[in-house]
Amino acid sequence: MHPRTCTRIHLAHLRFNFREIRKKIAPSRLIPVVKADAYGHGAIPVSRCLVDEGADLLAVAQYQEAMELRDSGIDVPILIFGRLFPDELPDAIRAGFRVTLSGVEDIRWIERVPGNQPAQVHVNVETGMGRVGVLLEREPEFFDHLARSRRCVWEGLYSHFATSDETDKTYAGEQLARFNALMKRLQAKRPLPSIVHMANSGAILDTPESYFDACRSGIMLYGHYPSAETSRSIPLKQVMTLNTVVAHLRRLPAGHNVSYGRRWKTDRETTIAVLPIGYADGVRRHLTGRLQVMVGGRRYPVVGTITMDQIMVDVGNDPVAVGDDVLIWGDAENGSIQVLDVAESMGSIPYEMTCGISRRVRRVVVEADHVPVTD
């Protein structure tokens, strides 16, 4: 049965973005970030596509995300950003996952795992994000502990920018300087690991001095610039389109209220198209009064309060019909609606929009334009 409301995941666009980013950062490696179900796009089909394109290391946030990919048959190394607890470490080490270290306690937990299999580890250092990472002023001997470890094989060193998507790069520069200073101190004692990485999407666009051995890209892989303040130095294609159809058409007189709270009323006789999509699907209620959708290549305003299951669109006197396709966001043959524009209209970011598409919205994976291959 044809899905009335669905997201289409265009793998040809994903491949395009991957190649363009990799071209920009060469000879650095590209580490695709596929956490949060590949930012709502479907981690398994996205990861398979990226591995087919040559990705040899993927990154996720949590242990269960890595296990889902491994269980699906994806066998490349997977870096887990989040902390792994003692009960997760045995299986994680057995699966060959790359374990992030943020302190000496993580090393001690790995040392207590039964057996002798080594753990491939990446060290996250705090340079100014203030979230996770080794606090060197509190653990000045961390790297000595790591060097003495019987079980940890040091593969990677990384940090994370807090403001790389802002016009003012001053703070990003301070973080980068701290990271460079750390590497200089480490090199005086021992060789650096084989994979040093710091650049995220914003830094890939605007801070090439942070590329190092590898760069991590999340939101740009899916066709979105991280904010309106970054450059557009890499061309991108939106991977996700969010579509629905016209379910009802209602001809209403002037002065008629529409939706909860009577926030909007007709100022003339007009036609209201009702769409079977709402905030339970991921069209946020905060978009009330801000969202436009596209029918037949023309934009129309969503009117009245966005509800759980339906939104209303003022189509005036235009010849819109029940069953017509409606573009909520993405790239289509007859037009485009940028997720970044939708997000910024409500003070949000593209990450939140694509991650917020709910499970009841069917995903249709499209290998080439208009050729669905799987759900």
Relevant terms:
375 residues, alpha/beta, TIM Barrel, Lyase, Ornithine Decarboxylase, Chain A, domain 1, 2 domains, 11-stranded mixed beta sheet, 6-stranded parallel beta sheet, 11 helices, elongated
Total DSSP E strands: 21
SS-based class: alpha/beta
What is the molecular shape? elongated
Alpha plus pi helix count:
11
- Counting structural domains, the number is 2
CATH class of the largest domain: Alpha Beta
Regions with little confidence, pLDDT below 50 for 5+ residues: none
For CATH, the homologous superfamily of the largest domain is named as Alanine racemase
Give the end-to-end Cα distance, rounded to a whole number of Å: 12 Å
Strand content: 25-35%
State the helical fraction: 25-40%
Gross CATH architecture of the largest domain: Alpha-Beta Barrel
Largest sheet: 11 strands, mixed
Mean pLDDT across residues = 94
Radius of gyration: 24 Å
CATH topology of the largest domain: TIM Barrel
Description:
The protein has 375 residues and is an alpha/beta fold. The protein has 2 domains: 11-222, TIM Barrel; 240-374, Lyase, Ornithine Decarboxylase, Chain A, domain 1, CATH 2.40.37.10. Helices cover 26% and strands 26% of the residues. Strands 1, 10, 11, 14, 15, 16, 17, 18, 19, 20 and 21 form an 11-stranded mixed β-sheet that branches. Strand 16 and strand 17 (311-316) form a beta hairpin. The longest helix has 18 residues, at 170-187. The protein starts with 5 loop residues before the first strand and ends with a strand.
